[in-house]
Design goal:
Helix content is about 70%, strand content about 0%. The protein is mostly helical. The protein is globular.
Amino acid sequence: MYGPEDHINIPLVFRNMAANYITLGQYTHALYLYKMSFGIYQKVHGTRNNPDTARIFRSIGWLYQQKRDYKLAKHYFMKSLGILCRLYGRASEEKCNCNSPTPTCCDTEGDWNGINENHGAEVEWEWRYLLTLTCRCYNNVDHKDIAGILLDLGFNSYLARCEHINLYYRYAVQEESEKLLKDAGSMFKRLGILSKVANTLRNRGVNLSEMENFSEANSCFFHSLVLYQDIYGSNVNNIDVATVLKDMGINFLAQHEVNMKSTVISTKRS
């Protein structure tokens, strides 16, 4: 129908098919289709830094998040963030000074680098350095796609916390998640996307509640609830409001449980 096999609309079809494969749990097929889409975008755009490539890497991040491979998910979310910051932010000319033997360790432009199911050691890089470089970009620009990636990174860090037993690591990851979610919420607020602000506040509340910071968690839930009520008006019978109320209840019960444990410990000591 479109003629050339690298028509710009074909990757969109591949991406939609890949999303269906992810839903079915067929990640290898989905990854192959993303690779096909990436190849066509490279032919059409002739540059690595374009929104379509950023969307491909973000989609791959979601794929690995579904597979519970949060390190790889973070890797591709960061690639997407790097592209978006180069496009919409104040692109930094600073070069990486790290001594990593892997030449792609600080690549934020988004080349394919042989995306497949067997990444291995090439993704064992210090992603925080990339975030430091891109921070100075996204802190100087408001764009919904950048805010969306920050939200993805924050939620991904929260999910990664659930996979680790080491308490120090878990709390470090949660603090990382808190910062990213806060940045995302602030950007959505400046952009006037209230539903995204409310959703980000709810995610922050869940994260803070897991950190046993119940007071701040309740504050996030309350402000999220207020925003949803502003959005929906008198029609408060919807899933968003119900979800926030549920989270507030869980937060209250968790706080009560911690208080009861503290009381029991104090009683035993006395």
